[in-house]
Specification:
By secondary structure, the protein is α+β, with helices and mostly antiparallel strands. It is 39% helix and 19% strand.
Length: 145
């Protein structure tokens, strides 16, 4: 996936985040790297606002605001920074992929659990074990004459 080839991120079936909604900024990288890191802005910070996005339906927006609350600022914007590569293009791609993964995971609605009854055999085994345990404990007691 080349970031220049795409114009949107696919985050759910029928839901795409247009790249026009994502603010991409190149910033200087920190840490070791010598002269290269001092004179090149290869680190990439992307910002996407969940509250103002037109790509989301209301229920998706509510779900993202709830699930990603710890990652959002007061305005509802999420910021992702990538700086693991020496190339700005690779870092941009990595940041966009990370945003896509985070949003995809947050939009997954877990299945509701269906309550089931224990099988007759499991109930019988449980009661049988309970009876045996009771007998074992009662045999340990003192017998009053």
């Amino acid at each position: 996936m080349s970031s220049s080839d795409i114009d949107s991120l696919d985050v759910a079936p029928g839901t795409f985040i247009p790249l026009s909604e994502i603010e991409v900024r190149a910033i200087s990288g920190g840490g070791p790297g010598g002269q290269h890191v001092n004179k090149s802005a290869t680190r990439v910070a992307i910002t996407w606002n969940v509250r103002t996005s037109r790509a989301l339906r209301d229920e998706q927006r509510a779900r993202l605001l709830e699930k990603l609350a710890s990652r959002l600022d007061q305005d509802g914007a999420m910021r992702i920074v990538a700086g693991e590569f020496r190339s700005q293009q690779q870092n941009r791609r990595a940041a966009l992929e990370r945003l896509q993964q985070v949003v995809q995971r947050a939009l997954i609605v877990p299945r509701t659990r269906k309550a089931t009854k224990p099988t007759r055999g499991s109930v019988e085994r449980r009661l049988d074990e309970k009876r045996r345990r009771s007998e074992t404990k009662s045999e340990r007691r003192r017998i009053n004459d």
